[in-house]
Design brief:
Largest interface: A-B, 40 and 66 residues
Distance between the termini of chain A: 50 Å
Strand content of chain A: 5-15%
Shape of chain B: elongated
Oligomer: heterodimer
Structural class of chain B: alpha+beta
Helix content of chain B: 40-55%
Low-confidence stretches of chain A: 38-50
Number of helices of chain B: 46
Number of strands of chain A: 1
Distance between the termini of chain B: 139 Å
Mean pLDDT of chain A: 73
Radius of gyration of chain A: 16 Å
Mean pLDDT of chain B: 83
Number of strands of chain B: 13
Low-confidence stretches of chain B: 638-648, 699-712, 871-882
Order of helices and strands of chain A: EH
Number of helices of chain A: 1
Chain lengths: ~50, ~900
C-alpha cells in the first residue's frame, strides 16, 4: 500500500509477541516522557487504592 | 343275487334316492323363501348365482363352498362385479383363511382383493359400513396370510386402501402399523391435522425404526412442521420397546443421531445407556457415521463433552475446527457455541479464514476468537460483511490482505449492538460513540485502505480537534462520526490511542480500570516486563490527561503503529500474566521439614504438614459429601443455576489467603462439612482472570465462560500485598480459568496441591481429630486426590499477627506514608474481624486508627480531583499546523483518486 503520510510506520504485523511488546514499550516510554514534567496534572502514581 | 348284481342294484337304488332328494331340494328352493344352499343342495342349485349370493348373505363362510369355476368367472372380469359373489362375501364379513378356496388365496385371489377394494366407494366416514371400515376389516383379517410376503401386492394393496380412505389407527394390529406405507400415511394425516396429539397417538415401533426410507420421510414431515430435533427424538423413543430397539441396533442409533442430531447430547445418550455403557459405546471402533465418529474422538479426550457440547457443532460444516479447539468450544455453554452456530455461511467462512490467520500468529487463539465471533454475531461490522459478500458475489474475491485487516478489526473487544439497542439507549448519547467500529468501515474498498483511513482521520483530528475546518473534515465526514460525538479532548485521546495503540477509548478505559492501580508496583526486571508496564502507564496517562495541549504534543511524535491482532487483547493477557507471577511466586508448597505426621484413610496413607505462619495460599472452599471429591472436581460440571453451591465451574472463584485474611470459621452447606482445597504449583499455567477484594458472587454470574477473554470481567488486578490490605468481608476472590489445553490438545483442569485444614487450637494431637467431621472429610478428600493435608494453626497465626501489629504500632504515626498507614489500618481491622478487639485495644488507640483512616480517605479524594476520565468538553485553544493541513488535503486527494472517498461524504 502506498505510504500516504510523513508518519513513521511502526510495522508490527510480522513481529513476534515479544518483539511487539518491546517495540510498543519503546514508543510508550517516549509518550510517558511527556508526562514526567511536574506541571502535568495527572502524573500520579496510584498505589494501594482502598 | 350274485355279488356283482347286488352292487348294481344298490347303485341304482342310491341314484334314485339322490334324484328324489335333489328334486325335493329344488322344489323346496322354489317354495321356501328362506331356502339357502347347503351340502344337500343339488349341483344345479349350487351353480345358481342368486342362491349362492342369498346363502352368502346369511352365511359368508359359504364362499368356501362355491366352485372355483364360478369364482373364476368373476375373477376374470375386468372389475369385480359389485353384485357379484365375492364382493358380497367380503361385504358380509368374509374372512380369508386356510379354508378359503385356493383360487382366492392365490394369484387370482390377490386380484380379487384389489378389485374389491377398487370398487369401494368412499362413503361418509360416520357410516360403520363405509369403505374404509370394510377395508379395515379385510386388511386386519389378512393377518399372517401369505399375501404379506408378496411385497408388490402389499404395496398395491395398501396404496389402494389409502386411496379409498383407509387409515390405520393406534389400535390397528401391529402388522399394519409396521408397514411403511400405512404408517407414513397415518403420520402424514396425524401431523397435518392433529399434531398436538402426536405423543398420545404415536405408533412408532422397531420395524419402522429399522426402515430408513420411512425414517427419512417421517423426520422430514416433522421438520417441515418446525418440530425440533429433540422433540423428534422424543417421538422415536416414546416407549421402552423403541428405546431398546435403538439401543440394540447401532445402525439405527447412528442413523437417528446423524439425521436428528440433538443439541443436548447427554440427554440423548442417557436415554439408552448408563455411564458404563456410554463408555463402552464410544470405545467401539466400528462407529462409521460422521457425527458420531467426531463425537467419539472428543469423548475419548473428555467424557464431559456430552454435557456441554451443542450437538449442532458436529455438523460437517464445522469439521475444519480442530478437535482440541472444539473441545474448548464445547465447554462454553452460553456464549461462543451459540454465536458460532448463529453465523450464516458467509460469516462462518470469514470466521474460519480469520481463525486460520490467528492460528499462525498466536497460541492465545481463544482470546482473539472470542472477540471475532462476538463481533461477527452482534457487532458493528454487519455493513462491512454485507459489502464483502456482495463484492465476492460480483467476482471481487476476498483477499488474504482483506482477511488480515478484518481480523485486526474484529479481534478488538466487542461492543454488543443488541445490548445497545435494548439497554443502553439512555446511557450513551450516541451509538457511534458506543460502536467499536471506530472509523465506520463499511465497504470492501475501505477495508483495503483501512490503514490510510485511520492515519488520515487521526491526523485530521490531531490537527483540527474542533473539527471546524470543513476543507479537511468534509471529505472524511463518514469516518469522523465517532469523533464528532465526543468532547474535543476525548477526540484527541481517541486519535492518539488509535494511532499508537490501535485502541479505542472503551478499551483504554478497561485497561486503566483493570491494571493501572498497581502497575507501578510490578517488578521491571526484564525489558519485556518493563515494556508492558510502560504501555499500561502510557495508556493511562493519555486516558486520564486533562491537558489537551500536552495530548497534541504527543500527537506530534508522528508515528503510526500498524499491527495484526488487537493490541488490547494481547496487552490484557500479558499484563495479567505479570500479576499472576506475583502470586504464583509466593504460594505455599509443603517442605519435608514441615511434615508433622501421617494419617490413614481407608488404608491410604496421607502426609500431614504444618504450614506455620506467613502463609500465602490460593484456596477454594468446597462442600464435601459421599461422592469422590476428585471426581466432582474433575467432572467440570457446569452450573445448574443460582444457589447450587456444589457445582464447580470452569471459571472458579478462589481466594488468596494469608495470615491476615485467614478464612473464617468452618461452615457447612446443606449440612455437609466444607473442606478447603489448596493450590500451590498447581496454579501454574492457569489464568487469573479477575481479582476482587470481596465476594462478588462470581460463580453464579459468569462461571462457565471458558472463552471469556478477561476483558469483560470486572475487578482490578493488583499485587498480593494490595489485595491482602484491601480485602473486605472476610475474604477476596481470584477468579481462575481452571481449564488448560496441553500440547497434545488434551484439556486439563487445575488440580489442588493439598487440602488445607484450619486448626483452631495451638496444641493438638492428630488422633484427637478423629471425631472432627471437617478433619475426616479433609482426610477423605486428601486420599481421593492423593495429596497431603496442610494444617494451618489459627492460634499460632493469631499470636503472630498480634506481634506484627505491636511492631507496626510502634513506628506508625500520622506522618507515615499512605502505604504504611493503609497496611496498618487493614491489619488491625482484619485482626478485629477474626479475633475481636479486646487484645488489639491494648496495642492500638482506636481513635488514632480513625484519624489514619480519615487521612487516607482525604488523600484518595485529592488524587481523583486531577483526573479526567474522558467526558469533559474542553475548548482548549490549539495551534494548527498549516503544513499538516496541506498534507491532509493532499492525502485526501490521493484517497479520492483511489475511489475510497467518493466526493459525497459531506453529510
Amino acid at each position: 500500500m502506498k505510504k500516504l503520510k510523513n508518519n513513521i510506520i511502526i510495522d508490527l504485523k510480522n513481529k513476534s509477541e515479544y518483539e511487539k511488546v518491546v517495540e510498543m514499550g519503546k514508543l510508550s516510554r517516549m509518550i510517558n516522557n511527556f508526562f514526567k514534567d511536574k506541571k502535568t496534572k495527572n502524573n500520579r502514581l496510584i498505589i494501594n487504592k482502598t | 343275487m350274485n355279488k356283482e348284481n347286488a352292487i348294481t342294484a344298490h347303485k341304482n337304488k342310491t341314484g334314485i334316492g339322490k334324484l328324489v332328494k335333489n328334486l325335493f331340494e329344488i322344489i323346496k328352493s322354489k317354495v321356501d323363501k328362506n331356502y339357502i344352499l347347503s351340502e344337500k343342495s343339488p349341483k344345479s342349485l349350487k351353480r345358481n348365482k342368486d342362491l349362492i349370493i342369498k346363502t352368502i348373505k346369511r352365511n359368508n363362510k359359504y364362499l368356501n363352498n362355491v366352485s372355483e369355476e364360478i369364482l373364476l368367472q368373476e375373477l376374470n372380469q375386468k372389475d369385480l362385479p359389485i353384485q357379484g359373489i365375492i364382493n358380497i362375501a367380503f361385504e358380509n364379513g368374509y374372512i380369508l383363511n386356510e379354508e378359503s378356496p385356493l383360487v382366492l388365496l392365490g394369484k387370482d385371489g390377490k386380484k380379487a382383493i384389489l378389485r374389491y377394494i377398487k370398487i369401494q366407494d368412499k362413503a361418509d366416514m360416520f357410516n360403520k359400513n363405509n369403505a374404509s371400515f370394510r377395508i379395515k376389516n379385510l386388511l386386519e383379517d389378512l393377518l399372517d396370510k401369505n399375501v404379506f410376503t408378496d411385497l408388490d401386492f402389499q404395496k398395491e394393496l395398501f396404496e389402494l386402501s389409502i386411496e379409498k380412505g383407509y387409515n390405520i389407527s393406534e389400535d390397528s394390529p401391529n402388522h399394519l402399523k409396521e408397514n411403511e406405507i400405512l404408517a407414513s400415511h397415518y403420520y402424514k394425516e396425524l401431523i397435518e391435522n392433529d399434531i398436538e396429539n402426536l405423543s398420545k397417538k404415536n405408533i412408532m415401533n422397531p420395524q419402522l425404526l429399522a426402515n430408513k426410507d420411512f425414517l427419512v420421510n417421517y423426520i422430514n414431515l416433522l421438520r417441515e412442521k418446525g418440530i425440533s430435533n429433540e422433540d423428534i427424538i422424543e417421538t422415536l423413543t416414546y416407549n421402552e420397546e423403541c428405546i431398546n430397539a435403538i439401543k440394540n441396533n447401532s445402525n439405527i442409533l447412528e442413523f437417528i443421531f446423524e439425521n436428528v442430531t440433538p443439541a443436548k447430547l447427554d440427554i440423548f445418550f442417557n436415554k439408552f445407556f448408563d455411564k458404563e455403557e456410554i463408555n463402552g459405546f464410544f470405545s467401539l471402533d466400528n462407529i462409521t457415521s460422521h457425527k458420531l465418529s467426531r463425537l467419539s474422538q472428543l469423548y475419548k479426550r473428555d467424557e464431559t463433552i456430552l454435557e456441554t457440547l451443542n450437538g449442532n457443532l458436529l455438523d460437517k460444516k464445522y469439521d475444519n475446527i480442530e478437535s482440541y479447539k472444539m473441545q474448548i468450544i464445547g465447554k462454553n455453554i452460553h456464549g461462543f457455541q451459540e454465536k458460532l452456530l448463529g453465523l450464516n455461511d458467509f460469516k462462518y467462512n470469514l470466521y474460519s479464514r480469520m481463525s486460520e490467520y490467528v492460528r499462525t500468529k498466536t497460541n492465545r487463539w481463544n482470546r482473539f476468537e472470542q472477540s471475532i465471533v462476538d463481533n461477527l454475531a452482534d457487532g458493528y461490522f454487519d455493513d462491512l460483511c454485507l459489502d464483502l459478500y456482495e463484492s465476492a458475489k460480483n467476482g471481487d474475491k476476498i483477499s488474504q490482505k482483506d482477511i488480515e485487516t478484518l481480523t485486526f478489526l474484529l479481534s478488538k473487544q466487542n461492543n454488543s449492538k443488541k445490548a445497545f439497542d435494548e439497554m443502553l439507549k439512555n446511557y450513551y448519547t450516541s451509538e457511534s460513540v458506543y460502536s467499536n467500529n471506530t472509523f465506520n468501515i463499511t465497504t470492501k474498498i475501505e477495508l483495503e485502505y483501512y490503514e490510510s483511513i485511520k492515519e488520515i482521520v487521526c491526523d485530521t483530528v490531531l490537527t483540527d480537534s474542533g473539527l471546524e475546518d470543513e476543507k479537511i473534515t468534509t471529505p472524511i465526514n463518514k469516518y469522523l462520526d465517532k469523533f464528532r460525538a465526543l468532547p474535543e479532548i476525548d477526540r484527541v485521546k481517541l486519535a492518539l490511542l488509535e494511532k499508537y495503540y490501535n485502541m479505542d477509548l472503551e478499551e483504554a478505559r478497561t485497561i486503566v480500570n483493570k491494571f493501572s492501580i498497581d502497575i507501578a508496583n510490578l517488578p521491571k526486571d526484564s525489558e519485556y516486563k518493563e515494556s508492558i508496564v510502560e504501555q499500561i502507564s502510557a495508556i493511562r496517562n493519555i486516558f486520564e490527561c486533562i491537558d489537551i495541549d500536552k495530548l497534541k504534543e504527543i500527537g506530534n511524535l508522528d508515528f503510526i503503529v500498524q499491527t495484526d491482532l488487537s493490541t488490547t487483547t494481547y496487552l490484557v493477557e500479558e499484563t495479567k500474566e505479570l500479576f499472576e507471577e506475583q502470586y504464583k511466586d509466593r504460594l505455599y508448597n509443603p517442605k519435608k521439614s514441615e511434615k508433622i505426621g501421617e494419617v490413614e484413610y481407608k488404608g491410604k496413607k496421607i502426609k500431614v504438614f504444618d504450614a506455620g505462619t506467613d502463609i500465602s495460599m490460593i484456596v477454594k472452599r468446597v462442600n464435601s459429601n459421599e461422592k469422590n471429591s476428585k471426581d466432582i472436581w474433575n467432572s467440570m460440571t457446569h452450573s445448574k443455576g443460582v444457589g447450587d453451591g456444589n457445582n464447580l465451574r470452569f471459571y472458579t472463584s478462589t481466594s488468596y489467603m494469608t495470615d491476615e485474611n485467614l478464612l473464617n470459621e468452618k461452615s457447612s452447606i446443606k449440612g455437609s462439612p466444607e473442606i478447603i482445597l489448596g493450590f500451590g504449583q498447581g496454579v501454574n499455567g492457569f489464568s487469573f482472570d479477575e481479582i476482587e477484594i470481596c465476594d462478588v458472587g462470581t460463580t453464579f454470574i459468569g462461571g462457565d465462560e471458558v472463552f471469556n477473554n478477561g476483558l469483560y470481567r470486572g475487578g482490578t488486578h493488583m499485587t498480593p500485598d494490595t489485595l491482602e490490605s484491601n480485602t473486605k468481608g472476610g475474604y477476596n476472590e481470584i477468579v481462575i480459568n481452571t481449564l488448560k489445553t496441553d500440547e497434545n490438545g488434551k484439556t486439563n483442569k487445575m488440580q489442588p496441591d493439598y487440602i488445607v485444614y484450619i486448626m483452631e487450637h495451638e496444641n493438638y494431637d492428630l488422633e484427637e481429630l478423629e471425631n472432627n467431621e471437617v478433619w475426616l472429610s479433609s482426610k477423605k478428600a486428601a486420599s481421593e486426590f492423593g495429596i497431603p493435608i496442610v494444617v494451618v494453626n489459627k492460634e499460632k497465626i493469631r499470636q503472630s499477627e498480634m506481634n506484627k501489629i505491636a511492631d507496626m504500632s510502634e513506628v506508625i504515626s500520622y506522618e507515615s506514608n499512605d502505604t504504611d498507614l493503609r497496611k496498618f489500618v487493614a491489619k488491625v481491622e482484619h485482626f478485629i474481624e477474626r479475633y475481636g478487639d479486646e487484645e488489639v485495644k491494648k496495642l492500638v488507640i482506636m481513635a488514632e486508627l480513625s484519624v489514619y483512616k480519615k487521612k487516607l480517605e482525604k488523600t484518595e479524594k485529592e488524587k481523583n480531583k486531577d483526573v479526567s476520565m474522558s467526558n469533559t468538553k474542553q475548548n482548549t485553544p490549539h495551534n494548527r499546523k498549516i503544513n499538516d493541513r496541506d498534507s491532509i488535503i493532499k492525502r485526501q486527494e490521493d484517497l479520492r483518486n483511489a475511489n475510497v472517498l467518493t466526493g459525497d461524504e459531506g453529510r
